[in-house]
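Escalated from tier 1: L-homoserine holo job.
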Amino acid sequence: MRPIHIGLLGLGTVGGGTLAVLQRNAVEIARRAGREIVVSHASSRSLRMAPEALARVAMMDDPFQLVAQPEVDIVVELIGGCTPARELVLQAIAQGKHVVTANKALIALHGNEIFAAAQQYGVTVAFEAAVAGGIPIIKAVREGLAANHIEWIAGIINGTSNFILTEMRDQGRDFTDVLQEAQTLGYAEADPTFDVEGVDAAHKLTILAALAFGIPLQFSACYTEGIGQIQPQDVENAARLGYRIKQLAFTRKTEQGIELRVHPTLIPAKCLLASVDGVMNAVLIQGDMVGQTLLYGPGAGALPTASSVVADIIEVARTLTTDPHNRVPHLAFQPGELAATPLLPMTEVTTAYYLRLTAQNKPGVLAAVTTILAEAGISIAAMLQQQPESGSYQVPLVMLTHPVQEQQMNAALARITSLPDIADEGVRLRVESLD
Ligand code: HSE
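Tier 2 regenerated the structure:
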């Protein structure tokens, strides 16, 4: 049988890894796919590959020409970003080619358009590598958990921010220094603010929420908050209270709507997710029938991400001859069955909170703070107050609250921080029990 021909767009970290995996594991891959799979064409702005790896690959300067090659069966898009990736993918689809991509921004922002086009032309667009690198999370949510109502998903799905938080906690290292290391190791995005501001995790969470709840992709409705405000003292306070701070991507279906949010979060130190350190990723899923399942693995890097890309290529190869209507739907639910469930604005989300305020060390300040919280119906679950450093007139007040709606907390915090004896805006982090 004729081998399946891959046209590879991009030979960077993941593109190079994909070529390596396809060549190194060619025999095992052919045994699984039922046919040989070869990279016949590739296009890349820069060439960092050993020439022998490309000996049987036709290199093309123009990626649009690659997409138009009649002998290419599957276009593998690994250039990242939305331009020209969107145009290339839509052109490939219009030419009847299947597409495999690792591009989370492309799927989160343009997935609705891309999947509609794929359905129209009867092709598959596969995107396992777009979320959590080497972890087969798309397949798990879309197929393995298909019997469940998914209630919520909590993920550590940005390796760079997890690496930074872990190094800050364990080694006391400086934020910038750790970020540079993540860039050198190839974990960070081309624009690393996407990692530290939560945008990369929001792209991935948008995809997971669509698969979990059968809703269209709605990246613009995802709330994001970065890790830049976290201080070593917050990491220490969290530990004293029995928690760890993680950059959590969280989506939950409630009666009022769907929560979609990425922000630093205190999670119980004893839960498995709290032990996910360094660049590793993990996704915890609560289904109504299965209970909790946890998938853990490398969320970035050349070979782990290529492992997911190649799994998609094999999957597409296996389904090449099936009727398009009998394939697994792109977003887990049949295209006509997507729900218009509203997404909940952040002000209407209910969570517990960690608060750190800097107060003048004098009588009545704590009473004034707790009075405002009591008037807002906010119950305090735990408190820490240490002695001020010698010579200082200021003292940090640290509290954990019971769950409360965000707008109530915002209103109470505005009153608290306008007290004359509260010295700053304070730090407010959300707390999830994950039970
Ligand atoms: N920049 C991403 C991360 C790479 O740090 O997780 C994988 O998407």
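Residues 104-121 form the longest helix (18 residues).
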